[in-house]
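pinned: reference chain
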Amino acid sequence: MLAKTIGGLVGPTLVAIAIAMLLNVGSMPLIAAQVARDPALILLSGILLLVAGIAIVRAHNVWSGGWPVLVTIVGWLALLGGLARMFFPIRLAAIAAQAGTSRALLIGSAVILLLLGGFLSYKAYSRE
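pinned: its structure tokens
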């Protein structure tokens, strides 16, 4: 039941992020360059991501199999990603600037987020 609740929040969020990335793929190099010039923004996003990751892991640290494991994995990835942003904001700013110039990487990342978010949304909102 908790997997459906968290999946119902995370799934649509990932879908929205993916759609925003795809709609703004042409602007992403500029956005990435601006983010790279502001490591404080990366640090702040790390704090928010860490809190979200800890909340998911504390509420749903399930490794018993099935689709709910994806919720746990998303939680751990958020937690670790948040820590990385907090500990290495300058280094990650440089990586963000470089990654933001690759159209293929942006589209590929957006497709992965769209598929994961769509799957979590389907599982969370289906009657199974």
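why pinned: DSSP finds six helices and no strands in the chain. The mean pLDDT is 95.
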